Automatic annotation (TrEMBL):
The gene is miaB. GO terms for cellular component: cytosol. The keyword Transferase applies. Keywords: 4Fe-4S, Cytoplasm, Iron, Iron-sulfur, Metal-binding, S-adenosyl-L-methionine, Transferase, tRNA processing. HAMAP family: tRNA_metthiotr_MiaB (MF_01864). It catalyses: N(6)-dimethylallyladenosine(37) in tRNA + (sulfur carrier)-SH + AH2 + 2 S-adenosyl-L-methionine = 2-methylsulfanyl-N(6)-dimethylallyladenosine(37) in tRNA + (sulfur carrier)-H + 5'-deoxyadenosine + L-methionine + A + S-adenosyl-L-homocysteine + 2 H(+). This is tRNA-2-methylthio-N(6)-dimethylallyladenosine synthase. Residues 38-156 form the MTTase N-terminal domain. Monomer.
Length: 484
C-alpha cells in the first residue's frame, strides 16, 4: 500500500545522535525487506491511542518482512510503545528494558526500541539515553511512520538512532495496519490535545489537535466493514473536539455518516471532554441506532476549587446539569468517568465533594487515579505545602473505590432479568468453558456458549451481577442462540 502525506510537511526538529543525518522530510520511508527471517515484538503501555499506534507499527513491521511474536525470548526486535500519563507506566518500562540487558549480551543482534509518549519529553529522552545504553532506537509519537527508515539506519550504521519530532506535521494517511482483533477496531479520528489540564502531560507528548479528514476515516471504516468488522471505536484524547481544526465537520456529523456504513453494527467513541458535549452531539447519540449507549465523560473531581485549579473549564454544577441533559436525551445511557485524588491543594472537604458527586451521578463505572506529578506540567509548580501526602491520597482512593464499587454493583444488579445485546469477544479467562462479551453499555457479560459465536452479536439474559461483570445465559430461539 502506498503512503501519502496530506499537504506539505512542516520542518521536523530531529534529534541526531552519533553520526546520524537529520531527517529532512515527513514522507514515509519506502518499504524494505529488513525483517525477513526475523521476529519482532511490540509491547504496548498506555491508552487506546497507543494500542492503535502499535497496530500501525505491527503493520509496518509485517510489511518489512518481520514475523510478529509475543515471546520476548524469540524476538530479534522488541519495541516498547510507552505511556507517560503517570509515573507507574514509565517505571515499568525502565524495569522491563533494564532486564533486557542480559538477553542482549547473549544475543547481540537483538535490537531494542523505545517509542511513544516517553521520548516526547526531553527529560525522559535524556534519561533513556543515559540509563539504558543497550537501547538501539528511540522515536516519538510523531515519527511513527518513519519506523522502517529508522530501523534501516540502525542496521546500517550499527549505532543508536534517535529521532523525536516536537512539531506536529500533517496527518499521515495510508499506513499499513495489523489489527489485534478481527471484529472490533480502533479508528483514530483526532490526534493531540489542545486542553491545558494542569496535571496532564498528554498535550506535550501528543501535540496540538489534528483531525483526520472525514473521507479518510469513512474509507477506513468502510474497509473494516468489508473485512467483517462489526464494531468501531473512534479515538481521540478529546474525541468530541473532532473537526474543530477542520471547520466543516464535527463528531456529531461524523457519527451520522459512520452510522450509514453497512456491516458496522456498533459505534463507540472515546474520550469526551465535558466542555465539547454539545446538544447536537447528544442528539446524534440518540438518533444513530448504531452508536452505543455509553459515554465516557471524565469529571476528575467534584469540587469547583479543584476543577478550577485543574484547568478543566467546567463547574460541578455545569457537569451535573450536562449529565441530566445527556440522560434526558438518551435514556438509559451508561456513564463512566475518570477521577483523580490527591491533586495539590485538595482538602478533605474538596474530596468529600468528589464523593458526593459520585453519589449524585451514580456512574456505571470509574477509573480512579492518585495524582502523579509530571515534569513540566503546571501543577508541579503549585507550592510544596499544597502537596497531599501519599498516605492521605491512598486513603482517599480506597474510600472512593469502595463507594464506586458499591454503586457499580447496585447498577449491575438492576440489570438482572433483562435481555441484552452482547458482542461475543472470546473465551472467558476466569471461567473456562464460558464466553465473554460486551453489552452496548460496555459491561462485560460471562455466559455459556459455543466458540463459534465469537465476533457475533447475540442476545443474553442477565442472571447475576458482580461489581465488574454480569453473568448471563444465552437466549435461545428454537435450538440456536438468538443472533441479533
Ligand atoms: N484525554 C482524556 C484522558 C487522558 S489520560 C480525557 O481528558 O478525558 C486518562 C486519565 O488519566 C485522565 O482522565 C486523568 O484522570 C488521568 N490522569 C492524567 N494525568 C494524570 C496525572 N498526572 N496523575 C494522575 N492521573 C492522571
Ligand atoms: Fe490531558 Fe486534559 Fe487533554 Fe485529557 S483533556 S488529554 S486530561 S490535557
Ligand atoms: Fe499515555 Fe500517551 Fe496515551 S501518555 S495515556 S499513552 S497519549
Amino acid at each position: 500500500m502506498a503512503e501519502a502525506v496530506n499537504g506539505a510537511g512542516k520542518g521536523p526538529s530531529a534529534n541526531g545522535f552519533g553520526t546520524l543525518p537529520a531527517a529532512t522530510s515527513r514522507e514515509a520511508a519506502p518499504a524494505t525487506f529488513l525483517g525477513r527471517g526475523r521476529k519482532a515484538q511490540v509491547v504496548t503501555f498506555g491508552c487506546q491511542m497507543n494500542e492503535r499506534d502499535s497496530e500501525t507499527m505491527r503493520g509496518l513491521l509485517t510489511r518489512m518482512g518481520y514475523a510478529l511474536t509475543d515471546e520476548t525470548g524469540e524476538a530479534d526486535l522488541i519495541l516498547f510503545n510507552t505511556c507517560s500519563v503517570r509515573e507507574n507506566p514509565e517505571r515499568k518500562v525502565y524495569g522491563r528494558v533494564g532486564l533486557l540487558r542480559e538477553l542482549k549480551a547473549r544475543k547481540p543482534w537483538l535490537k531494542i526500541g523505545i517509542c511513544g509518549c516517553m521520548p516526547q519529553q526531553r527529560a525522559e529522552q535524556r534519561r533513556i539515553e543515559e540509563t539504558l545504553p543497550h537501547v538501539d532506537l528511540v522515536f516519538g509519537t510523531m515519527n511513527l511512520h518513519r519506523l522502517p527508515e529508522l530501523l534501516q539506519r540502525v542496521e546500517e550504521t550499527g549505532e543508536r538512532v534517535i529521532e523525536v519530532w516536537h512539531e506536529e506535521g500533517d496527518v499521515v494517511e495510508g499506513l499499513p495496519v495489523q489489527r489485534l482483533n478481527g471484529f472490533k477496531a480502533f479508528v483514530t479520528i483526532i490526534y493531540g490535545c489542545n486542553e491545558h489540564c494542569t496535571y496532564c502531560i498528554v498535550p506535550t507528548t501528543r501535540g496540538r489537535e489534528r483531525s483526520r479528514r472525514p473521507e479518510a476515516i469513512l474509507d477506513e471504516i468502510q474497509t473494516l466493514a468489508d473485512q467483517g468488522y462489526r464494531e468501531v471505536t473512534l479515538l481521540g484524547q478529546t474525541a468530541d473536539a473532532y473537526g474543530r481544526d477542520l471547520g466543516d465537520v464535527d463528531l456529531a456529523g461524523l457519527l451520522y455518516q459512520v452510522n450509514r456504513i453497512r456491516g458496522i453494527r456498533r459505534i463507540r467513541f472515546t474520550t469526551s471532554h465535558p466542555k465539547h458535549v454539545t446538544p447536537r452531539l447528544i442528539r446524534a447519540l440518540a438518533e444513530n441506532e448504531k452508536v452505543c449507549e455509553h459515554l465516557h465523560l471524565p469529571v476528575q473531581a467534584g469540587s469547583n476549587r479543584t476543577l478550577k485549579r485543574m484547568g478543566r473549564h467546567y463547574t460541578r454544577e455545569g457537569y451535573l446539569e450536562l449529565v441530566e441533559r445527556i440522560r434526558r436525551g438518551v435514556p438509559g445511557i451508561a456513564l463512566t468517568t475518570d477521577l483523580i485524588v490527591g491533586f495539590p491543594g485538595e482538602t478533605e472537604e474538596d474530596f468529600q465533594e468528589t464523593l458526593s458527586l459520585v453519589e449524585e451521578v451514580r456512574f456505571d463505572g470509574a477509573f480512579t487515579f492518585i495524582y502523579s506529578p509530571r515534569i513540566g506540567t503546571a501543577a508541579t509548580r503549585f507550592p510544596a505545602e499544597q502537596w497531599v501526602p501519599a498516605e492521605v491520597a491512598k486513603d482517599r482512593i480506597y474510600r472512593l473505590i469502595d463507594l464506586q464499587n458499591r454503586i457499580s454493583l447496585e447498577k449491575n444488579r438492576e440489570l438482572v432479568g433483562q435481555e441484552l445485546e452482547v458482542l461475543v469477544e472470546g473465551a472467558s479467562e476466569k471461567e473456562p468453558g464460558k464466553l465473554t462479551g460486551r453489552t452496548r453499555s460496555n459491561r462485560i457479560v460471562v455466559f455459556e456458549g459455543d466458540a463459534s459465536l465469537v465476533g457475533r452479536l447475540v442476545r443474553v439474559r442477565v442472571t447475576g451481577a458482580q461489581t465488574f461483570t454480569l453473568e448471563g445465559e444465552p437466549v435461545r430461539r428454537g435450538l440456536a442462540t438468538a443472533a441479533v
